[in-house]
Specification:
- With about 55 residues, the protein is of the alpha+beta class.
- The protein has one domain.
- It is built from two helices and two strands.
- Strands 1-2 form a two-stranded antiparallel ribbon.
- The longest helix has 16 residues.
- This is DUF1674 domain-containing protein.
- Belongs to the SDHAF4 family.
- InterPro entries: SDHF4.
- It comes from Litoreibacter albidus.
């Protein structure tokens, strides 16, 4: 990863703004999914399983 000292001032400002937005963001209060699949989220891990057959995107 690049040292922050090597970045232009605009990039440093963008990083600071992103960090401030991330710190100020509230966690979403979403209801749990009803009837969803068991196990890890398939979209996150890039594969789906249906009737014992795994499909990789």
């Amino acid at each position: 990863m690049t040292d922050k000292e090597d970045l232009p001032p605009a990039a440093l400002r963008a990083l600071e703004e992103a960090a401030a937005r991330k710190k100020a963001a509230k966690e979403l209060d979403l209801p749990s999914e009803l009837g969803g699949r068991d196990g890890p989220e398939p979209v996150r891990y890039g594969d789906w399983e249906r009737k014992g057959i795994a499909v990789d995107f």
